[in-house]
Design a protein that fits this description.
Elements lengths: L11 E6 L4 H17 L3 E5 L3 H10 L6 E6 L2 E7 L5 H11 L8
Parallel strand pairs: 1-2
Antiparallel strand pairs: 1-3, 3-4
Length: 104
Amino acid sequence: MNASVPPPPNMHLAYFRAPWCSVCHEKAPVAEQIASALGMDLSWWDMEEDAGRAEAERRRIKTVPTLALIHGDRVPFRLVGRMITPENVQHLLARFSPPADPRP
C-alpha cells in the first residue's frame, strides 16, 4: 500500500463483520493491512453481539463487511464488501487530507 497519503488526524478505522460472512473473513486481513500501513487504530465490531449492533446503529452501518473511517461522531467514508481495498482507501483518504503547500 502506498503510504503517500497520510491519514487525517484524530481518526481511526472500524471494521464491522459477522461470523457467518465469508467476505468478512476474506477482507479482515485487508483491513488489518490498511490500518497498519496507515498507522491507524482499528476497532472490530461483531454484528452478532449487542455492542456491535449498537455501534453499527449509531454509525448507520447496514452491511457487512464495512470498513469505516471514524472521526468523532461522524463517518466521513465507508467501504463495503469487496470494495475494501488499499487502493480505494488511498483514494478516499486523498479527499480528506489537507492540500500540499505549493511553496518550495
